[in-house]
Amino acid sequence: MDQDHFSIHPILAELKRSVEMTFTILYLSNKFIIHMKHLVTSLFRVLTFSALISCSSGSSTETFNEEWIPIFNGKDLSGWDIKIAGYDINDNFNETFRVEDSILKVDYSKYAKFENKFGHLYYNKPYSYYRVKLQYRFTGRQLKDGPDYAYLNSGIMLHSQSAASLGKAQTFPVSLEMQFLASNDSVKRTTGNLCTPGTQVSRNGAVVSAHCIDSSSPNYDEELWISAEAIVLGDSIVHHVIEGDTVLTYENTQVGGGFVNKDMNWRTGGFADSVLWGQKQNTPLKEGYIALQAESHPIEFRKIELLDLKGCKDPKAVNYKSYYVKSDPSQCRYK
Predict the structure, then answer these.
(1) Helix, strand, coil % (nearest 5) of the chain?
(2) Are 266 and 277 in contact, with CB atoms under 8 Å apart?
(3) Alpha-carbon distance values, 156 to 159, 229, 274 (Å)
(4) Which residues pair with 100 in a beta bridge?
(5) Structurally, how many domains does the chain consist of?
(6) Nearest CA-CA partner of 312 in 150, 129, 139, 149
(7) What pLDDT, on a 0 to 100 scale, did the predictor assign at position 88?
(8) Half-sphere exposure of residue 182, counting CA atoms within 13 Å on the CB side?
């Protein structure tokens, strides 16, 4: 018996080593595949962004001038719709949104209290693949009863609901907020962050559960004009750019993740159709409107421009543009 034991034992030991080696190889192979998948995804992001910058700088052998559209005319609010919580569409309560000296202002000088009158100004045309850029600066003081988080806080909403689709009491649109923040001696915050009212995004292949994601931007003092840009490619990827630097990137934009948090859910956020939005969980968010935010701190905007990245990609067409990212054959025109 002992003799059999000692003769079999080395065989079992060798078999054990073989099994362990096999599992080790499989584990390392799987880790390699996962690593390569993330590497390819990251490389695709870099190449996509580099291609956009290349087109912008005119390094292509066949370049076309970018046709940026000034979506704010510097004179009035033509082309924009107003929606303030508690008021009908285009009821500009207390002239919250106004234009002076070619600047679009969020102004609270006629307010006694904020009273949760969250407002947004919506450009009246939806887009899916685009770049939007502007300059902003914070001015004046926040209304005393404004939320603490809204101090030196505003933003531009991307892939947003239309103004007409909001409920009368609705506080924020379902959208991706490129958040604008300012700093001073008492508070330091990054800008170009992301907040996700009714939406969710992924980073590095995983859905992010947090409502807001900080960018990597420097701190910028209040009352400085800051240049901001969003590069939005359908539901695939979005880049936030501050002062020419990419400070945040995310992908797989979707409806979902609740509304804001347990205290501000679909119901308390003023949604008349809260059940419907709950049923849209994980639906790809491929397009939408652009909106500027008013949430109790005065802010100014200027030089608001948009570059459509969806159009005719047939070089034989008269309206072909090399910088288009998304093909839309229906737009092609020929001689």
Answers:
(1) 20, 30, 45
(2) yes
(3) 10, 10, 23
(4) 103
(5) 2
(6) 129
(7) 97
(8) 25
